[in-house]
Amino acid sequence: MPDHAWYLRCGADDVGDSAVLVGDRGRVHLAAELLDDAVVLNEDRGLTTATGFFDGARITVSAFGMGAPIATVVLHELAQLGVRRFVRLGTAMTVGDTALGDIVVAHGAVRGESTSTTYLPIEYPAIADAGLTRTLESAASAHGASLRTGIFATFDGFYTEMFETGSGTTGVAERYRDLARTGVIATDMETSALFVAGRALGVQVASMCLASVAGATNDTLDPAVRREAETQLLRIGLAGLAAAAHTAAAAAQTSAPAAATDEREFV
């Protein structure tokens, strides 16, 4: 295991065992305001990273910009440093009945991007970690969020596959209709790759986003409403990660004596 991350420029001692992955580096600074004793570790290449404490759990927050290739670089490096659970907290486009302002949680994702195939073949499903996802959903309910759960669709081409430019030549509107018919609730550019990379690397990954753009119309949230909603999203994600970390720590303490006893029995 490397003791220093190539791009994130931090070491294993600098990170927690839980991490939030965000696109916009401004969200790292926003998250740092919610953390206790937050320390900014890196700003190089816009991959802003900070570590602090939330409800007693040590959590790292790291930005990747946009798209699956860099999102998986950040996840990969943090996993190599010892981070065991990850939550993507970002924005997504609505599909079907999903409304602007909803908090959308992915149980799985359509693999419409290419990065995940460098980790596992296309036949492998992109599925969230079930336990971590349930913990996030509980945190969202406790915060009174308008919650939608289901399948995301992840793509590489924003203007060619996700955003209707009005040219009528990209087929985006038809794609959204088809996705809605199959029960997809949102689109983004990272979730499926993070799920697959996480499985390949042996870490837990969940994805929870704010529905900030309407896929069919390109309508957006009011900037002030969006900022408040993003702050709520971060609070929910941090609370969920902290709860998961405490549960894992308690389970480890409970199982340790049994493991020691078993070991003595075989001496």
Automatic annotation (TrEMBL):
Protein name: Nucleoside phosphorylase
Pfam families: PNP_UDP_1
Gene Ontology MF term list: catalytic activity
Source organism superkingdom: Bacteria
InterPro entries documented for this protein: Nucleoside_phosphorylase_d, Nucleoside_phosphorylase_sf
GO CC annotation: cytosol
Gene3D superfamilies reported in the protein's UniProt record: Nucleoside phosphorylase domain (3.40.50.1580)
TM spans (from-to): none
